[in-house]
Specification:
About 5% of the residues lie in helices and about 30% in strands. The protein is mainly beta. The strands form two sheets. Strands 3-4-8-7-6-5 form a six-stranded antiparallel beta sheet, with no helix packed on it.
Amino acid sequence: MEMRKLTKEEERVIIHKGTEYPFTGKYDDFFQKGTYVCKRCGQPLYSSEAKFDAGCGWPAFDKEFPGAVKRVPDPDGMRTEIECAKCGAHLGHVFTGERFTKENTRHCVNSISIEFIKEGEGNE
């Protein structure tokens, strides 16, 4: 599997499971039509149709593409981490029961962990 070269900050979040500061990511307040892919391997993860404004400071999605995201309990037992199912890149955390959308799920994703491909461009 081919992996993209990452910057030090991307490595801190994607490989070492860090978190970017809230309201600093480029996709927090971004709502164009297209597909969000894993920054590390290019795997399609989310459709723009699943993105919503949760007001949390990170991009929020209520549904992933089938089989694209793996859920892993955090060592603290309090949260559930989400990773790219293809390469294991840290994406963020998933929360349920908040009732933001009918899916009742919020994938809270670091902007630095994903890339956006505008509808009609790239390999959607």
